[in-house]
Amino acid sequence: MLxxxxxxxxxxxxxxxxxxxxxxxxxxxxxxxxELWRVGDxxxxxxxxxxxxxxxxxxxxxxxxIITDGEARRESxxxxxxxxxxxxxxxxxxxxxxxxxxxxxxxxVVGPIRRRQPIAARDTxxxxxRTDQPIKITIPGPFTxxxxxxxxxxxDERSLAxxxxxxxxxxxxxxxxxxxxxxxxxxxxxxxxxxxxKEYGLEVLSRALQGAPGTTAVHICxxxxxxxxxxxxxxxxxxxxxxxxxxxxSIETAQSNLDCSILESLPDKTVILGVLDLxxxxxxxxxxxxxxxxxxxxxxxxxxLVLAPDCGMKYLPRKAALGKLRSLVAGAExxxxxx
Length: 339
Hints:
The protein is α/β, with parallel strands linked by helices. The protein has a single domain (20-338), classed as Alpha-Beta Barrel (TIM Barrel). It is built from ten helices and nine strands. It has a six-stranded parallel sheet. The protein has a three-stranded mixed sheet with strand order 1-2-4, covered by helices on one side. The longest helix has 22 residues, at 41-62. Pfam families: Meth_synt_2.
């Protein structure tokens, strides 16, 4: 199929599940933030199952081709994984600067990073049971988690990132074994901390992806539109991913009005192209989706393009999110008819 459609990862969680006002008034949590949940511990797992089912149904009703779990179980894209590892003192967090330059509590690494058990396997199996369509599971990337931690154990940041990469690699293999068709690593800090990414980011990413038995993706971005309002017009770290052992590269282009000529530097990658602007809840018409996709089609073959929102859809009202996804699907259909 030309121009398959997919979320980047997240979909808006219901108001009955999470305090969306609190969620939108703070930086994405790096440590646990149980105060965001409206449901008590004794009912939370059932509520998370129900919210995930709703997110899947919304994607199916909109007509998406590749389905995620909407990250409905997560307080943020990264803390669910980063706080589930050995070697991290979650009761006494550290502090690190967020990509905005503001301090934020983060996991404090006090020993070797180890994975205790599969983290996404149950989520993957739950999603697999609810659709026969291809499914994608997202995992926070090791470079980003190392930037979102206080290192009180490893000799340097590179060593810390490689420790995370080994744990992520185990998780990738078990996530595919649980039924995932695509596993995506979220690496926004490769853009936010490009000099460090250029120093050792590809080494870390290669270690995380070693021997992956299925289709892999990496997502880099400019930060959530709900929190980071100003966008550069170019990526600081993107051509370098041509050398990464990854099949797909997920980027944002809608809000930033990205110069898509940079995509010529990724000739062997499938591009997951953000074509929905999430800084505005207004629903784009399908022609806007088509026009944004065509900016990339000058440089990317049609068979190598997946259409998606920019990242951070969880912050939108659910009605707006569903409307945008329907326009995404309609725009993709127009493009298929043309190409």
